[in-house]
Amino acid sequence: MKFSKLFIPTTKETPSDATLPSHQFLIRAGFINQQGSGLYNYMPMGKIVLDKIRKIVKEELDAADCSEVQLGFVTPIELWDKSGRAEKMGKELLRIKDRKDNDFVLSPTNEEAIVELVKNRITSFKDLPVNLYQINTKFRDEARPRFGLMRGREFLMKDGYSFHESVEDMQREFAHMEETYKKIFTRLGLDFRVVEADSGAIGGTGSKEFHVLADSGEDTIIVCDSCEYGANIETIFEDEDVVNSLNDLTYEELQEKAVGKKCSCGGELSYTKGIEAGHIFQLGSTYSEALDAKFLDSNGKSQPFQMGTYGIGVSRIMAAVIEQSHDERGCIWTKETAPFMIDIIVSSAKKEDELNAGMKIYEELKDNGIEVMIDDRKKERFGFKMGDFELIGFPYAIVIGKKLQDGLVELIDRKTGEKTDVALDDILDFVKKL
Ligand code: ATP
Ligand code: MG
To answer: 275: CA distance to ligand 1 center in Å?
Structure first.
């Protein structure tokens, strides 16, 4: 891609309500823009990153034998009345009316719709298990939309649903999804923890959350220093008011609380902050019973499906990556999430030799399958282009400047700031090794 052709409206202005680095930088670097409370547009760079996250999620789920579907964003309220969630979800559920006065909701999640979809289509235990997922828009009329993409009202979620003939098989798939999610978060380059969680309004028993570790996380989690154990404090303090008051304590005070001091493995427990990026539930038969979705088991007996449900906050992850990886100058994308791996900065694109050298490297890297951007803008000065490189957060830059006379370009590592002179002829080999 050519910087001069792509729409990347970077700005120095920080929105007044943006307190988190991800919120500030995603807007300043031209990834997203806000069009209303909790409502965001993705500009070209934002769309590229969102699609990359989406692709990783899809690849790992497809490899885990899940099938992608796409459900309608608008669902009839009747389904929500049947499951009892029309009332339970309260004002978070955005209701709309059509011209004939029929009531609908904008899907905040899709358990009801997916049960309706398999109902009378899967009729025998022989057709089970099945795991269906979608990556689609959700709407939740959150009481306090904030922190940019972290807590929007309209957001992108991967929601998956599995159907089983027995509780044991549902638990097997739950464990399988836990492993699949670990692969996804590892590939995304995130530092994360899997923790025991509270099932909340979705219902069911047994659930785990995937938390991206970051000081700005809205959740407090307890983790063991020697085994994999982790838990959301919501599971330890059942009373919601206690959890909320704990969240308002400082971290140090929490550390001193006399709960859960030792893990069952003998390891030390400590508190840390996490961003909930994924949540998997053992749902059971709550929804299949409510919506009367049944199959014939091996004895010819009619049974409600046992279900699992699995979510990933795809758009929230975009913010979580930046919460975990940024500095005072801007974003630092992980290799799998970066919009482009390399930004070729032509210091002075008006100089023909510099622009030609830059274009030559650009074509060569592109031909070798490397995701590369060239900052070929003629009006912008070098300092401005460097500022954009740091703000946007490409992992590397190749600077074409004065050293070109000696056959050299400079490679800059965005994360460490390290600069290395590389001979023009060696650039491809050098980049391939990164
Ligand atoms: P939270 O506790 O943060 O409100 P939740 O428990 O209501 O989230 P789930 O119903 O488990 O969320 O949804 C699955 C995933 O969708 C979450 O793990 C989270 O990553 C993402 N998500 C939920 N609400 C939002 C939101 N308002 N904006 C962006 N992503 C969200
Ligand atoms: Mg959750």
So the answer is: 10
Fold classification of 342-433 (topology level): Rossmann fold (3.40.50)
**Which residue's C-alpha comes closest to atom 11 of ligand 1?**
279
Please check the confidence at residue 114 and state whether its pLDDT lies above 70: yes
- Domain residue spans of the chain: 21-327, 342-433
Q: How far is the centre of ligand 2, averaged over its atoms, from the C-alpha of 9 (Å)?
A: 34
User: What confidence category does residue 241 fall into, taking pLDDT thresholds of 50, 70 and 90?
Assistant: low
Separation of alpha carbons 165 and 168, rounded Å: 9
Do the beta carbons of residue 103 and residue 37 sit within 8 Å? no
For the stretch 297-333, pLDDT in tens is 999 999 999 999 999 999 999 999 999 999 999 999 9
Band the pLDDT of 233: cuts 50, 70, 90.
Answer: confident
Q: Does domain 21-327 have CATH number 3.30.720.210?
A: no
Ligand 1 center–CA 286 separation, angstroms: 20
Work out the percent of the chain whose per-residue pLDDT is above 90: 85
Q: Which residues contact 420 (CB under 8 A, 6 or more apart)?
A: 410, 411, 430
* Minimum CA distance residue for ligand 1 atom 12: 279
- CA atoms of 177 and 172, how far apart (whole Å): 9
Which residue, by CA, sits nearest to atom 4 of ligand 1? 151
Q: Which ligand is nearest to the CA of 309?
A: 1
